[in-house]
Amino acid sequence: MNFLPIQLFDSESSTYTYILAADGEAVLIDPVDKHCERDLAHLERLGLRLAYVLETHNHADHVTSAGRLRQLTGAKTAAPSGCGIAPAEVQLNHGDVLRFDASEEIHVIHTPGHTAGSVCYLWRGNLFSGDTLLIDGCGRTDFQSGSAEALYHSVTERLFTLPEPTMLWPAHDYKGRSVSTIGWEKRNNSRLSSRSLEDFVQLMNNLNLPPPRLMDVAVPANRNLGLPH
Hints:
It is built from six helices and 14 strands. It has about 230 residues and is α/β, with parallel strands linked by helices. The longest helix is centred in the last third of the chain and has 12 residues, at about 150-160. This is MBL fold metallo-hydrolase.
């Protein structure tokens, strides 16, 4: 089977969901509740058993389908240990390695900043960056224990030090872009490239963004993997 990530999109929240497919098993990253059947249909067509459902952080703009996918497929759920998603069977920390389909490895990189617990996943030269690093941008840092200083260090010390050809797959994009590379972002990212820590913190602290529309619903729901309490 082709080992390229399969990228799926939710138009309401501009969220990307990813299927990582190996010979007989798959992993889903950041699924959205309303697309549970769509995602299962992809797996069925490809003849894949779902091994894990991964979250990059506790999302504030959509509700996850991780809990429902676990119920329907028997997959394990995994979430960053610092995000308060207690029902996930696997609580992830920096340096952890998830294995599926016998020989496939996903490396966990803790990247606090957007939220205190945010992580990115590295698989076969592909970085799934959540809201930490976006294409020509980054996630906001003004809620859920966010920190502009922490995000700057996460990106410059843990992501920009990856090989430049590493493919960057974000959790969101609002301009129709699907993929970038670490090298391009290092040279061109308008928020982070060639910007000092002090300048970045000042920029992020003055964005004055409105709160996500679904935040009051999504954050508590996602702490329970999207399932009713």
